[in-house]
Design brief:
This protein is an alpha/beta fold and 291 residues long. The chain is 45% helix and 11% strand. The protein has 2 domains: 52-255, HAD superfamily/HAD-like (Rossmann fold); 259-291, no CATH class. It has 12 helices and 7 strands. α2 crosses α3 (53-68), α2 crosses α5 and α3 (53-68) packs parallel to α7 (141-150).
Length: 291
């Protein structure tokens, strides 16, 4: 009796051990759920700006086109790139108007920081970065600016960087080698005067009083014409209205990261959450089933 009981005990212990081993094996074979991959809607755009050979080709192409049209623009006293230019301006000295970020200098490292840290833009964070004075020149921009100065063309920098970072912006331009003989007088920043808002028309008009503006370089429709802070359809209509300006009087630089086009997708409603903004953007995607 004792040996039979002992045998049953051995079998029960063996069975229990087997169950434990099966349980452990099951635990080990069940994969641990992977953490969701971090995503940011600006990832591809910033990578294109930072790695694509095509981006460099596009900027070189744009500035080469601009340079080729300088001689024609100088020779024609009726030529102006500014819609604000009125009256008799043929005898005025020539000038070009340049935007800064993503037009002649790069801020993609700031944007990359937002992507890596899953952050979002704020004026305070942006101004802190501007003060680092670490922007780089866009390919072809310096050569174009220097060629313009050699031809006696004055350069004005009309930027929506704010007056708070005007000194750092000027220092950045000088550090990179852009012509700024007039110092801060050559730099027209947002809110430098009460009437100088984000629409650049009032600042272009100031330049037009003393100079014939023969070219404008920018990355946003607002750099060229008033009324760009509007619907997608309105922005397209403005672009088409001045179709003859592009590539000669107006030189637009590629910027898939930010700009008026981005805000127009959600009607500039910055009170929306990031998720809500992304949902609004998805509504504009068109597939073959949408035709």
């Amino acid at each position: 009796m004792h040996s039979r009981t002992q045998g049953i005990g051995h079998r029960l212990r063996a069975l229990g051990a087997g169950i434990v081993m099966l349980g452990l094996a099951a635990c080990q074979s069940t994969p641990t759920p992977a953490a969701p991959a971090p995503t940011h809607e600006g990832t591809n755009a910033i990578l294109w700006l930072q790695t694509a050979a095509e981006y460099r080709a596009a900027t070189l192409q744009a500035f080469r086109s601009a340079t080729l049209h300088l001689e024609r623009a100088l020779a024609d006293p009726t030529w102006s790139a500014a819609l604000e230019q009125q009256g008799e301006f043929g005898a005025l000295p020539p000038a070009i108007i340049l935007d800064m970020d993503e037009a002649i200098i790069r801020s993609d490292r700031f944007q990359a920081g937002l992507v890596k840290n899953d952050g979002h833009y704020s004026l305070e964070v942006w101004n802190d970065w501007v003060r680092t004075e670490t922007s780089e020149a866009i390919s072809g921009a310096l050569e174009y600016a220097r060629e313009a100065r050699e031809r006696g063309i004055k350069i004005f920098y009309v930027t929506n960087r704010t007056a708070e970072v005007e000194a750092s912006s000027l220092a950045t331009l000088r550090k990179l080698g852009f012509p700024v003989e007039g110092g801060l007088e050559d730099l027209l920043t947002q809110h430098e005067r009460p009437e100088w808002g984000s629409d650049k028309s009032s600042r272009r008009a100031v330049v037009c009083r003393t100079h014939r503006v023969i070219q404008i370089v920018g990355d946003n429709l607002n750099d060229f014409t008033s009324g760009a802070h509007s619907s997608l359809d309105r922005r397209l209509a403005l672009t088409n209205r001045y179709a003859d300006y592009w590539g000669s009087r107006w030189i637009v630089m590629p910027n898939p990261s930010y700009g008026g086009w981005d805000g127009a997708l959600f009607e500039y409603d910055w009170s929306l959450s990031r998720g809500e903004i992304l949902d609004r953007k998805r509504e504009h995607l068109k597939t073959t089933e949408d035709d």
